[in-house]
Amino acid sequence: MTYPKTALTTPRRYPERATYDRHVAHQLLDGAYVCHLGFVVDGAPRLLPTLFVRVGDTVYLHGSTAATPLLAARGPDGLPVTVAVTVVDGLVLARSQFHHSANYRSLVAHGTARLVTDPEAKRAAMDALVDKVGYVLAGRRAAEDAGWRRSTHTRPPTRAELAKTAVLALELEQVSVKRRAGVVADDEEDLALPYWAGVVPVATGYGPPLPDAGVTAPPPPYLPLATSPWHTAAPLAGVSVRLEALAPEHAKDLFAALDDAEAWRHMTVPRPRDVEEMAALVDAAIADPARVAWVQLDAVTGEVIGTTSYYAISEAAETVAIGWTMVAPSRWRTAVNTEAKLLLLRHAFDTLGAGRVEFHTDVRNTRSQAAIERIGGVREGVHRRHKRRGDGTWRDSVVYAITVDEWPMVRTRLVSRLAAGHTDAHAGRH
Q1: How far apart are the C-alpha atoms of 418 and 430, rounded to whole Å?
Q2: So what's the architecture of 232-419 in CATH?
Q3: pTM above the 0.90 mark?
Q4: How many CB atoms lie within 10 A of CB 207?
Q5: pLDDT digits (tens, 9 = 90+) for 314-362
Q6: Helix/strand/coil for 33
Q7: Contacts of 215 (CB under 8 A, 6+ apart)
Q8: What are the backbone angles phi and psi of residue 10, rounded to the nearest 5°?
Q9: Which residue, among 224, 218, 115, has the nearest Cα to 170 in the 3D structure?
Q10: For the chain, what percentages of helix, strand and coil (3-state, to nearest 5) are there?
Q11: Does 2.30.110.10 match the CATH number of domain 15-180?
């Protein structure tokens, strides 16, 4: 499903970067908190930053009943508006100043905003907004799917408070998303200049909840807990792939992405037969205290393309293992696995202060072994009868590791491979 392409939604600069895909637009809206609302009053342009929420194909914006746009929207014709949302995924530092840029996802919607006057519709829109903000992890429906609603953990608004609050509704009809995801675009004559160039990923993270003074109630289950960084799935962003904390609502898309027998051949769990069985695997991964699970997303479209994890975590020994890695077959022989491993290794060594990162893979999985060796893993031996396979048989696991002393050379090699456009020969299932 796509939005119609119109003269109003077609960018004049880099039109090839535009998409009208509804799923891409909805993901961007659900993952952002603030939009900018543009409108004209008495011939003068106005711009207002505000919180918003998407429900179906409608965006709801809230504000005071005394606010200019909300007053202007009271008329029968509504208020012509433009809504813009932008997420920056990386800073692109070029050799030349002219080619400095950013990797981003940006949505622009045009239409007529109308004041929501029906009391029930107004309350439902406010509940949706409170739920989105209250879940902390924007765009996630895990809390709602589990029966948790922020709007039921708070006092509802009084009539007086509702009377002071106005809600605008904008139907999503003329919408386009423009995005950039890639490397530096220096001119050929500048490539030999002695300046550093590359991409600095930008990601949004959430810290532990800080209770207000006098609060005695425990934090609700949908808030991030105050855990060690070693046991936290921090967001990690690259050029081709983004890693975010695995959540229950990823199960459906993850099942579709990994619905291939070959993707499960060397895994230690049986291949799920349906979305419900995949959901059970996702729930188990999230609940496992010895594991930190990420979902892998296409950095441009936000499409779910796989999963990966830390496990065998020992903060005291400064050791962590990378595994449970699965990538959609459509992304095999691309840069996704290499960049994901670089993000995980960089987080382990440079952020957490790890001294050793391990990889374990089935002795039969020669392609995964080759992929780990290309990354820079050093083969150390074999753990016999180490793990049970998904079919019930016992496997021997080949053990690889990268130490902190080896990390600088490994990092340079991986960065060079990605810059040169080298692809993974295999996506490393282990």
Answers
A1: 22
A2: 3-Layer(aba) Sandwich (3.40)
A3: no
A4: 9
A5: 998 999 999 999 999 999 888 899 999 999 999 999 999 999 999 999 9
A6: coil
A7: none
A8: -95, 115
A9: 115
A10: 30, 35, 40
A11: yes
